[in-house]
Amino acid sequence: MLLAELSWPAVNALPRDMPVIMPIAALEQHGPHLPLFTDSFLVGEVARRTNEALGDRVLLAPVTWLGNSHHHLDFAGTMTAAPRVYLDMLRTMIDCVLHHGFKRIVLLNGHGGNSVPGQQVLYEVRQHHRDRDDLLLLLANYWALGSDPAQSIPGLRHRIEHACQWETSMMMRLRPDLIGDYKSAAKFEWGNPFQPATRAWTMPDVSPEGHVGEPALATAEIGEALLQTFAGDVAAFLNRVIAWGGRSWNG
C-alpha cells in the first residue's frame, strides 16, 4: 500500500500495527558509468516489488533520496545532508509516523552511508520512548537480510560494493538507458584498511574513479536475479515484522 497515493482519512483508517516502510537512499556519484540516483532507483525497485508481494499488509512511504553522502563530495553532482541534519531529518520523519499512532517502523536502507546514522536515530527515538514496550524500530539494509547471492547466481562475484558488478547489473535490468561505458571501468578493490578496526575514509582514498569492484562483469540477467533475491529477502523480513506479537523482545 502506497502512502503517497492515499488520502488522510484512508491512512487514518489503517490498523496501527501495520508496518510502515520508509526507504532511505542517496543522490551521489556512482563512478563514471552509473547515474547519481542509483541507490534511490535500486531501493525504490526493491520496495516496489516487495509492496506488490505484500499488498495491503504494509504501508510504503516514498523514497527519501537525500542521504548521508559526505564521503562522496569529491565527485561532482553528489548531494548530502550534513550528519546532524540527516539525523534530525530522519528523527522528524519517524516522529511524524509515531504521532499518527503507528508502532512498527522499518527504515529500508539503500545506501551504506546511511547505516550508522540510521541506527543512531532509532536508538535516540527508542530512548525517548523508553516507557513503551509496543514499539518496533528497525533498520534493514536490503542487501543484507539473509541471502548470499554470490553462492547462487552464476557469474556473480563475492559481495556488493559501490557501483560494482552487483549495482551495475541491477541498473542494467532497471534503467539500461542511463548506463555509461561500464566495460571500460577499471577494477578497484577495498583492500584491507586496518581491519577488523573501522577506518574513517572518503571515496578517493579507495578509488580515484568513484567505484569499487568490477563493473565490467555486469549483466542484466544477474541484475534481475539480484532484484528477485533482495525483494524476496525484504518480503520475508517484513513478514516477521507483521507477525510480531507487539510486546516481545524476540522477533
What does this structure look like?
The protein is an alpha/beta fold. It has eight helices and four strands. The protein has a single domain, classed as Creatininase (Rossmann fold, 3-Layer(aba) Sandwich), CATH 3.40.50. It has helices at 8-12, 38-54, 83-99, 115-128, 149-152, 165-174, 203-206, 220-243; strands at residues 20-24, 59-60, 104-109, 136-141. It has a four-stranded parallel sheet with strand order 2-1-3-4. Helix 2 links the parallel strand 1 and strand 2 (59-60). The two termini are 23 Å apart.
Describe how the helices and strands are arranged.
Layout (H helix, E strand, L loop, with lengths): L7 H5 L7 E5 L13 H17 L4 E2 L22 H17 L4 E6 L5 H14 L7 E6 L7 H4 L12 H10 L28 H4 L13 H24 L8
Helix pairs in contact: 2-6, 2-8, 3-4, 6-8
What name does CATH use for the topology? Rossmann fold
* End-to-end C-alpha gap: 23 Å
Total number of helices: 8
Give me the CATH superfamily. Answer: Creatininase
| Percentage of residues in DSSP E strands | 5-15%
| Subunit arrangement of the protein | single chain
Reading off the top of the CATH hierarchy, the class is best stated as Alpha Beta
Contiguous runs where pLDDT drops below 50 for at least 5 residues:
none
Radius of gyration, whole Å: 18 Å
Main pleated-sheet profile: 4 strands, parallel
Structural class: alpha/beta
What is the averaged pLDDT score? 96
* Spatial order of the strands forming the largest sheet: 2-1-3-4
Helix share, percent = 25-40%
Number of domains: 1
Total DSSP E strands: 4
**What string, H for helix and E for strand, traces the elements in order?**
HEHEHEHEHHHH
At CATH level 2, the architecture is 3-Layer(aba) Sandwich
**What global shape is seen?**
globular
